[in-house]
Amino acid sequence: MNVTLPKKEKLNIKAIVIYTVSIIACIVAIIVIGLSAYYGSEELDRLITVGGSNISQEDIDYQLLVSNFDSIFQNQLEEYNTAANIKKIDDGQEIVYTYYAKDETKENSYDLNLNIPYININNETIAGYNQEIKETYERKAESTLESENQNIIYTVQYEATIENDILSLIIRANLKEGSNAQRDIIQTFNYDLRNNKEISLEEAIEQKQLDIKDVQDKIDEEIALAEQQVEDLRTLGYSIFARDADDEMYKIENTQDFFIKDGNIYIIYAYGNENLTDAMDLIIV
Questions:
Q1: pTM: predicted TM-score of the whole model, two decimal places
Q2: pLDDT tens across 111-138, in order?
Q3: Residue 273 lies in a domain
Q4: 98 with 46, same domain?
């Protein structure tokens, strides 16, 4: 019996170089995170310099928060402590719970994965929140279920926290309808349980004892950077949602969507709220 051995393939030098560089980059990243945990930020600043700029623990922590944003949506109210006197509508349910859940697919028509929250507090302002949530998310779900051959992909997730007697709820919806671009929609509700009133971003910043001007400067810096990055990509021919750093929407007093978690304030500009885009800018303070 004749046996034909496969021909020996030539080494792809370019591929080897790429793989080697990738492995080295991964090792460096692991070392950086390990050193930051072991030595702390000040010692790490002394030990590591990349491109002339020190890598601080604060920078690493910030990038981790940003990169982990997608994972915060667990469709629940996180564990909490509060001294506020809360009057529930349903004593058998949590303060925030999933009241409308649906995971259903119909070929060529729709693909739904929905977890829509309800705030279980007997309060006129909260009742308004619940009505808004119902009209925004449940109504879209019901109309989608009645659709035929529209190829709609619709998901809704949420997360809720109570910190320093502030109830913070964030809802995220992803909507793709036919050939239209996907929308990434964010809506937040922030309520002071102790004083029974809605709170603004400015009040949340003051409660954290941050300087308003410093926070505004950080927003302006991040948006200006995003604007420049988008313009660079658009110059190369990419179709990306444009920013205008001079827009009044980026002023703290005009910013509506923010979420409080683990002592951090997530300031969110989701352009899909009004446009056919999944573009979003996130600033954490």
A1: 0.80
A2: 999 999 999 999 999 999 999 999 999 9
A3: yes
A4: no
